[in-house]
Batch of 2 targets.
Target 1
Amino acid sequence: MNAVMAADAGLAVERTALSWRRTALSAVVAAIVLAHAAATTHTWLSAAPGFGAAIALVIVAATCYRRNQTLRARHRADIGVVTAWVAAAVAMVAGPALTIGVA
């Protein structure tokens, strides 16, 4: 039973790394969509929240990608720091998205 648990522990890290990679990819796609929507508006004032959200999503993507790399290298980074970065970026995205009516 210990051999099975040890094998699953390695796979759990791999699954977690892949989920961070998927989150990074999703954030990049959402950033592109928001940037495109902001670029097609008629005024810079209405485009600012969309561009701000796109920048925040790029930060989320970079953070998720970095976490993926640390998991693949088997380093145990402080998950609290990663969670704080992602939470802050999501909060930055949610505010402008609610303002421009995306959410």
Note: The chain is about 85% helix and 0% strand.
Target 2
Amino acid sequence: MRLLQAKPATVRRFMNVWPPFAFTGIRITRLDPGYWGACVRLRSYWWNKNVAGVHFGGSLFAMTDPFWMMLLLHHLGRDHVVWDRAAEVEFLKPGKGEVRVEFALDPADVERLRTLASGGAKVLEWFSADVVDSTGDVVARVRKQVYVRQKRDPNVLPEPNLLEATHE
């Protein structure tokens, strides 16, 4: 979480040398000043192609992996738990050359999730992003389900479960 309090340019530089991105050819080209969006690209190299000579599907997924969670976590803050819960990838055409994906978080979605998660309620929300090639054709559609919950106050004891509180 501390990293997300840094300036976006610092986070972008750090993530670009982070081994899961650096060693696959993934680069964050833009991380908005307000953490409302990002743009990520993947160039084609011999080490990130599959046996058919096109982008390895794992790299296409990896370039989308942390962003919805990261953007939400920045805006919801330390008093919320934000995790990736599930993912779906639909490969629509072979990825060749440079591909990119854009993320744009809507402030209304952040406030809606904050309201739904208030009081510790569990919220599951799906977000979608399209990986596109240099012609704008969609190569892959990635959906991520994010888990959001407001953290419980550690000073408030939970109500006892009457079924488990029986004594003999």
Note: Strands lie at 26-31, 37-42, 80-91, 99-104, 123-133, 138-150.
